[in-house]
Amino acid sequence: MLFAASAAIAACSAPPVDVALSVSLATAEQMTLRQSFGLRRDSLPNLDPHVRSIRYYPSLVASFELTEGRPLGYLVVDRGAHVASTPLVIRELDPVIVEEDEPGIEISNAPDDVEPHHVVHSVRADGQEKLLLYRYTPDRTDFGARALVLTGSAPEPVGFEAAYSESIAGDVFENDPVPAVGAYAARWAPEEDERLAALVVSGTVLITEPFGIDADPSNGFTGSVAGAVSQAEAPATALEYGRVVLAEDLIGFPEGTFSYVNSPVSGRYRTFVNFSEAEPEYTELGLAGRLETVLASGELLTRSRDRWVISGLFGEAAGSFPAGRLQFVHERNDISGSDDWHAVFTLTYWGQIDDEDYLFVRVYSERSDRLSGID
Fold first, then answer.
1. Is the dihedral of CA 52, 136, 281, 190 positive or negative?
2. What is the DSSP letter of 43?
3. Percent of the chain surpassing pLDDT 90
4. Which end of the chain is more exposed for a tag (fewer CB within 10 A), N or C?
């Protein structure tokens, strides 16, 4: 469960092996490379080129510089029937040794659906971080969740707790149906602990409620609810296993919380927004693709089949760029030292060093207000 960073960094200049990778690297040239390393095949559980996908989420509480005893990031491995996440921690610096930490988390999956699971990675109100896997349950009006919660801070040893919920509806919302889940956008999150979000059904009304989950040594899961931030009549379209992105006190809208709901309907993503309590209805936006977040620039980031798309708050086009295999993972404001927000993307691909298979990982960033200018 180790890797040598120096050898892997050199190998990351390996030539593209397919069109999607070529597109990714061409787009990434317009961003800043923040981190680059490699992992030998089978050096960690589930690290195999035959899995469906491997995504990497760099730690939000550590810099991109290697620091002994601090987290490096998280691998999220989609094996089709199951999705697993593993925290990686830097154990030694000379030579660099990275190990898998415990516990890991795993959820069952529904590989034939448009969006069987999704990931939320965020800083907690206490300055630590949480990586959470959502997956819908068979009735499609509820979600289960698995979370890795970082505990401890430097110079204390880093540790992780796992939180498990088989039913967000049952464990948090008194069994009211939950057709969509998500979180606050990073720039627009409140200071309180309840930074996750759920869309709860009450009759014909959709209620947006922030909530929190935490690890509990006695039962593995605790939930807390902050109370409704908006509610509106449900749109005519039935929403199933969608995602919610909340933004509080947006620029130009100092009061209230915007609730963006993105759901696959008949194989196509559709996005709806409830602007405030004063306008109790959901309006559909003319956006194509999966909604990722409300950027710190006040724009929406969506992923279509082959492009990342940046749009205004009301869906107006602002720009787009080729996606390839680039994955958006989070926004953070600790990169430049000036509190500017940066969107962070990662790229993983397989190659070889001395006839051995390696997973190469690259981390890129661009200022959020400059994404629309990428070609």
1. negative
2. S
3. 47
4. C
